[in-house]
Design brief:
Number of helices: 24
Oligomer: single chain
Radius of gyration: 34 Å
Strand order of the largest sheet: 4-3-6-7
Helix content: 40-55%
């Protein structure tokens, strides 16, 4: 077999995501808080971008202030409020002649052609079309006089961006009040391992037993159960089985009671012994008839113990009220989920208005000092190329933020049209709606709509609701109307709440009641909906006393 060098040409087709497109896709699925973090990061990395100070107000003609809360009609405001009926603006946004569709290529060896000029003009504060026309004519005249030159230098930044710092501006004197630092209010919660190790260090025990006890604490799960056997603990030392057993007994005496148990039965017995109920009937029920106790077979359990059903029910009530099946639950890590509404859906004069929540999002503007550096002949080519790249990045960021807002607005507008009865009357009027319906209405891909509604919330007259909660499946009733499955689940929940606890409704009985109301469901479907709502079965809900 011989090896030789050859030149081979292969033709392949690949889908390549540019950095701008990748950023646009990522920004669609960001929440308001995540978007604010991204903008802050871009402000730190891109020197061309500047943040408008809170005490500065954008005045008409101040094109240096680039607030990315642009309305579908093309004007930009500081409140983030969009017009009530932006149909024409929304349609023109995705049209072939839209300024946001202007294409420029970064692959043309640094040439910044008229396409980039169109992209820059997409973030203008005012619609000074007359001035733009005069600037274009002036640019052509200058080109005829000077000759061939870099297209980037032909952009009139005096019209697009004003000076970042006004020469007459002075910092206002403000009173600085001494307030306590936020660090004084922060506290870190102890984990289950920290809490047990603190108690263990106060316990007098031989060094090898203490070391084995620390190994046991390190192998507890979030619920407080021991995930491994004593043989595995002993092999870690290595320690003897007697040492591992003594260490386990020490850990099981610590707070919370029932910790380091190897199963639920042992956990409950440890708690009963600690409470002094080791000789009660409840301990015997757990120790000898735990299977029947889990299945709530009280008549059989009472017969096996030789007691009445009422007495067995009282002991079961004691187990439910006094014992904790997951002793480590209160030390489990709780991650706080901060919710910030993306939009406000408000009803004004019998019409719903969609308003964006831009609180906390920086208003951006571009520093013209970098344009002055570009005009300076002493600026090196390397510096000029860097500034051009930063300008491209800044404009891409502004365009992607605007595209994100336009997409969210279109989705919310269609949601309001389809779910108006829900916004007026409540959850009982929620209509079936799928992501596919919205994607067809706005002419976007299903994955785009999914990114928009995932993890984003809207402040509505019915409360703060996740956008995904508006989408539910439906089924047709006897009258031919499509009813949301969420309404059916709500009906099942209300029936269970109103049932007799001594004689709870079975899944078959619930299905028969729904059939009389026009909703034909099988018993298995009722059981599935009940499980999704985390409602126990009729046997578990039954109360004897």
């Amino acid at each position: 077999m011989s090896y030789q060098q050859k030149l081979v040409i292969n033709q392949t087709q690949r889908l390549v995501l540019t950095p701008q497109l990748r950023q646009r896709i990522e920004m669609l699925q960001m929440t308001t808080l995540e978007l604010g973090e991204l903008v802050s990061q871009q402000l730190a990395e891109n020197p061309v971008l500047e943040e408008l100070a809170p005490d500065e107000v954008a005045v008409p003609g101040d094109e240096g202030n680039v607030d990315f809360t642009e309305t579908p009609g093309g004007s930009i405001n500081g409140s983030g409020e969009l017009p009530a009926n932006p149909a024409s603006g929304a349609d023109s946004f995705d049209g072939p002649d839209a300024s946001y569709s202007a294409d420029y290529s970064a692959a043309e060896a640094g040439e910044f052609d008229a396409g980039y000029d169109a992209s820059l003009r997409s973030v203008e504060l005012t619609q000074a079309s007359g001035e733009v026309a005069r600037d274009a004519e002036g640019g052509e005249a200058r080109e005829a006089e000077i000759g061939e030159r870099d297209s980037f230098e032909e952009i009139d930044f005096g019209t697009t961006f004003e000076e970042y710092l006004d020469p007459g501006y002075r910092t206002r004197e403000t009173e600085v009040k001494e307030t306590p630092s936020f660090e004084q209010f922060l506290r870190s919660e102890d984990s289950l391992a920290d809490h047990l190790n603190w108690q263990l260090h106060l316990t007098i025990a031989p060094p090898d037993v203490s070391a084995a006890a620390e190994a046991i604490i390190g192998n507890l799960n979030d619920d407080g159960y021991l995930d491994c056997s004593l043989e595995e603990i002993a092999a870690l030392g290595p320690w003897t089985m007697e040492t591992a057993q003594k260490a386990l007994e020490i850990v099981q005496q610590l707070d919370p009671t029932g910790v380091a148990a190897r199963n639920l039965q042992e956990c409950l017995l440890l708690q009963l012994n600690y409470l002094g109920y080791g000789d009660r009937l409840a301990a015997k029920m757990i120790r000898e008839h735990f299977g029947q106790l889990q299945q709530h077979k009280l008549p059989e359990l009472a017969k096996a113990l030789g007691v009445s059903v009422e007495q067995a029910a009282q002991e079961l009530q004691l187990i439910r009220q006094k014992l904790e099946p997951k002793p480590g639950r209160k030390f489990a890590p709780r991650e706080a989920q901060y919710i910030e509404p993306e939009v406000y859906i408000e009803k004004i004069d019998d019409e719903y208005v969609i308003r964006f929540n831009d609180d906390g999002l920086p208003q951006l503007r571009i520093n013209k000092q970098y344009r002055q550096m570009m005009e300076n002949k002493e600026t090196s080519k390397e510096t000029r190329d860097y500034i051009k790249d930063r300008f491209r990045s800044a404009v891409d960021l502004l365009k992607n933020i605007e595209h994100r807002k336009q997409t969210i607005y279109k989705v919310c507008e269609r949601i309001v049209e389809r779910q108006r009865d829900f916004l007026d009357k409540g959850v009982e009027c929620l209509k079936p709606m799928m992501l596919k319906d919205i994607s067809e209405d706005i002419g976007m891909h299903l994955s785009t709509v999914s990114r928009v509604v995932n993890g984003k919330y809207a402040h509505t007259p019915q409360g703060v609701i996740e956008l995904r909660r508006f989408f539910t499946e439906g089924m047709v009733n006897d009258e031919g109307e499509e009813v949301s499955t969420r309404i059916i689940k709500l009906r099942i929940k209300k029936m269970i709440e109103a049932e007799d606890s001594r004689n709870p409704l079975t899944d078959d009985e619930i299905a028969k009641v729904l059939a009389k109301e026009g909703q034909k469901l099988s018993r298995r479907t009722v059981a599935k909906y009940r499980d999704q709502m985390k409602i126990p079965g009729s046997r578990e809900r039954r109360q004897v006393v």
